[in-house]
């Protein structure tokens, strides 16, 4: 007579995940990056940053501390994003694959999203007095949104275990074994 609570058979499931990362250590120019979503976001950010900078510089009070803070955020974002864009276009990111680029870019985009929020809000507070500052704050808020979207995409890629540039192939193997207990 079999006792209740003890199964007649049992099942064991084994899941094995493997990933293969393929990178090319050659530095080469690849213009196809600008047609990807991250490439388009970088170009949009650079354009909005330069437009905001120009708006502040043509205003009559471009020497004010709020204007200087906005210019620091806009030009810092312009140059850092430009360098990252050049790294992606020439596959420097792929050559230096051991650096956690996704995490670094996620931190950069999150930080600059906050910086652009504060700089644009500071300029928007004076937007009723200086039209150029109102325009700069508009471009700054748009850049802030794009930085936030880029940070979100980087976060999703980081959580998925993606690499910044190159190819990572994942395979999942499942095996199930059915047996009878030995008691």
From TrEMBL:
Keywords attached to this entry: Membrane, Transmembrane, Transmembrane helix
Residue stretches spanning the membrane: 43-63, 69-90, 102-127, 133-153
Protein's cellular compartments: Membrane
Membrane topology: Multi-pass membrane protein
Entry GO CC: membrane
Pfam family, one: MARVEL
InterPro entries with a match to the protein in the record: Marvel, MARVEL-CKLF_proteins
Positions of the MARVEL domain: 33-159
PANTHER family membership: MARVEL DOMAIN-CONTAINING PROTEIN, MARVEL-CONTAINING POTENTIAL LIPID RAFT-ASSOCIATED PROTEIN
Protein name (database record): MARVEL domain-containing protein
């Amino acid at each position: 007579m079999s006792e209740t609570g003890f199964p007649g058979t049992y099942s064991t499931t084994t899941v094995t995940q493997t990933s293969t990362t393929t990178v090319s250590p050659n530095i080469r120019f690849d213009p196809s990056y600008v047609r990807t979503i991250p490439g388009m976001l970088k170009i949009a950010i650079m354009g909005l940053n330069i437009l905001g900078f120009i708006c502040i510089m043509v205003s009559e009070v471009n020497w004010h501390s709020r204007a200087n803070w906005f210019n620091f955020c806009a030009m810092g974002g312009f140059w850092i994003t430009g360098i990252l864009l050049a790294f992606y276009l020439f596959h420097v990111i792929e050559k230096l694959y051991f650096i956690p680029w996704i995490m670094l870019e996620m931190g950069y985009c999150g930080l600059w999203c906050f910086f652009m929020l504060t700089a644009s809000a500071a300029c928007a507070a004076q937007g009723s007095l200086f039209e150029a500052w109102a325009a700069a704050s508009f471009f700054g808020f748009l850049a802030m949104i794009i930085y936030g979207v880029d940070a979100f995409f980087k976060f999703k890629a980081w959580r998925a275990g993606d690499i910044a540039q190159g190819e990572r192939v994942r395979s999942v193997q499942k095996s199930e074994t059915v047996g009878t207990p030995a008691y």
